[in-house]
Amino acid sequence: MINEAIRASELRVIGEDGRQLGVLGKAEALRAAQEADLDLVMVSPEANPPVAKIVDWGKYNYQRTKQLQKNRQKAKSLDMKQMRVGLKISDHDLDVKLRKVTAFLDAGHKVKIAVIYRGREMAHRDLGFKLADRVVAQLGDRVVVDQEPVFAGRQLTFVVRKK
């Protein structure tokens, strides 16, 4: 809410320089804003008394919009990537997949690694845990295991993230 749209009768007012002007009536606060050729903007309507700030509305709104965009970008960047690995994967193929995992980690993503069991491989569950240990060892001390290896259906999954 801005200027006359503010309904509260008393406001805690913050000046353009950031210092508190104290608790003022709505008319007094509007007069102080008009004298400075600025706007009175409601910052925290839930507070008691509500908090209003004397600012340039255009500049304030622009900065607020930019901050919201920045927060949305940060929220998007924390995706969970997944890498599927067969139980009988060769050394070279594993190295290639781990290079891709490292790229995901460097980009700031968490990586869920799934060891897939096919057919009679389910009888050798311990091989999947050994492969998971090997993967973590090859990734080195750059990663932290967020979720320990867990069986779900026909796959063993665990999550790693960058330190």
Give structural notes.
With 163 residues, this protein is an alpha/beta fold. The protein has 2 domains: 3-74, Translation initiation factor 3 (IF-3), N-terminal domain (Ubiquitin-like (UB roll)); 78-162, 2-Layer Sandwich (Translation Initiation Factor IF3). It is built from 4 helices and 8 strands; from the N terminus they run ββαββαβαβαββ. It has helices at 26-35, 57-77, 91-106, 125-139; strands at residues 10-14, 20-25, 39-44, 51-55, 80-86, 110-116, 143-152, 155-162. The strands form 2 sheets. A 4-stranded mixed beta sheet has the order 2-1-4-3. The longest helix is centred in the middle third of the chain and has 21 residues, at 57-77. The mean pLDDT is 91.
How would you summarize what this structure contains?
This protein folds into two domains: 3-74, Roll (Ubiquitin-like (UB roll)), CATH 3.10.20; 78-162, Translation initiation factor 3 (IF-3), C-terminal domain (Translation Initiation Factor IF3), CATH 3.30.110. The protein is rod-shaped and about 80 Å long.
